[in-house]
Amino acid sequence: MTGPAVSPASASTHVMGVYSRGDLAFERGEGVRLYSTTGEEYLDCVAGIAVNGLGHRHPRLIKALTDQANKLWHVSNIYRIPEQEALADRLCASSFADQVFFTNSGTEAVELALKICRKYHAAKGAPERIDVITFAGAFHGRTYAAVNAGGYAPYLEGFGPRLPGYINVPFGDMEALKAAIGPHTAAIMLEPVQGEGGGRVFSDEDLREFRRICDEQDILLVYDEIQCGMGRTGRLFAYEWSGAQPDVMVLAKALGCGFPVGACLTTDKVGECMTFGTHGSTWGGNPLAMAVGLAAFDEISKPALLEHVRMLSGYFRQQIAGLHDRYPDVISEVRGLGLLIGIQLKLNNREFMMMARARRLLIAGGGDNCIRMLPALIMTVQEASEVLERFETVCQDARAQLQSKVG
Q1: Which among 88, 153, 146 has a CA at the least distance from the CA of 115?
Q2: Contact 107, 142 (CB under 8 A)
Q3: Among 286, 238, 241, 240, which Cα is nearest to 262's?
Q4: Are the C-beta atoms of residues 338 and 314 closer than 8 Å to each other?
Q5: Closest CA relative to residue 43, chosen from 394, 397, 390
Q6: Rounded CA gap, 208 and 214, in Å?
Q7: Is pLDDT at 172 greater than 50 in this prediction?
Q8: In this structure, what DSSP letter does residue 5 have?
Q9: pLDDT at residue 98 greater than cutoff 70
Q10: Local structure of 352: helix, strand or coil
Q11: pLDDT tens-digit map of 117-143
Q12: Cys bridge to 344: 168, 306, 332, 359, which one at CB 3.0-4.6 A?
């Protein structure tokens, strides 16, 4: 027996109003396309904000979910969970890490990473080392410690005094970073490619310098790869481009490809401070989540898929560079790495997003007046060409609007 159909026209007023939702709802997806409740087809370059790395209705994910749903959904972390052990083994074999803790979300993984940063130094007899240095434009989640770490004022307003121990410095300002380091410094935390911050990329040289500084002063280096990890840049993890390994890394989003899965990875040297009772989670890493996570990981980590991402990102970058040349009055700058593409605009990015939606193209917003294109990793060149055709039409619409304002 099925429940009644839900119409967007009857949207509940009982849902907390923390989102500025558009009057648009979807009933199904297929690959890189979404179909609205009114039957319209959209090209999806939001992908659940870099979550649906394998697109919509991927057959392997559907099979993994349904097979596991018919066996066991949830037990508790007071028992062994073999699927959890299997995914942890895969993550560690493919990265710098020796240990993994599974969470339900990215922000929960960040919370654990922040706890680890302080616990590591406390266990070594330096509990005063609590400061975590982050960079302007960072987004590390919406929980209380995570918004304090991110340092974005609008996300902190009205929630009481700032938590101690979080220092925010200008993006990529190495001198400001060095000046901020002191006897209380515990860690440096950053996104190798900023998502919400507008697709800004830390250079390989900067990442290697961060690693050198951390080694020299026994500071932990933490990478937030919640958005830029899991194949989005054309490597499984974005840090691989620089070779500068972290001490701690957080993942989520495409790790579950739509099912809530997060993870905090660390080395044995750092992770040994987290002893019995220092952390826990009711649902984190349960059998249902791990079945989907294993299927997603096995698909995304395939060399052929990662090579496809690198090829497709090159195609996108070449074509968008051409659009930048043709529409310099609309596009200011093209940023990003792989299929995390940031485009800074000369008109309001929210207006541009609405124009794109009118052309049945879904794109995401970003800081610094950017929009983000975050297509599924499986998008074909033909589908990318469709995206770019619609995107150019939006640029034409934007140009017309800008000219009408001048006139």
Answers
A1: 146
A2: yes
A3: 286
A4: no
A5: 390
A6: 10
A7: yes
A8: P
A9: yes
A10: helix
A11: 999 999 999 999 999 999 999 999 999
A12: 332
Closest CA to 142 of 105, 103, 117, 190: 105
Closest residue by Cα to residue 343 from 323, 315, 358, 357:
323
The token pair at 2 is: 């099925």
Q: Please check the confidence at residue 3 and state whether its pLDDT lies above 50.
A: no
From CA 404, how far away is CA 374, in angstroms rounded?
30
Residue in the block written with tokens 């429940």 = 3
266, 269, 273, 275 alpha-carbon torsion, rounded to 10°: 80
Q: What percent of the chain has pLDDT over 90?
A: 94
What pLDDT is recorded for position 407?
Answer: 65
Which pTM was predicted?
A: 0.95
CA nearest neighbour of 362 among 12, 25, 9, 8: 25
What token pair was written down for 142?
A: 């919406």
Average pLDDT over the chain, rounded to an integer: 95
The verdict on domain 72-300 having CATH code 3.40.640.10 is yes
pLDDT band at 13; cut points 50, 70, 90 = confident
Beta bridge partners of 368: none
Q: CA 237, 150, 165: angle at the middle one, nearest 5?
A: 110
Q: How far apart are CA 266 and CA 246, in angstroms?
A: 8
Q: How far apart are CA 237 and CA 391, in angstroms?
A: 28
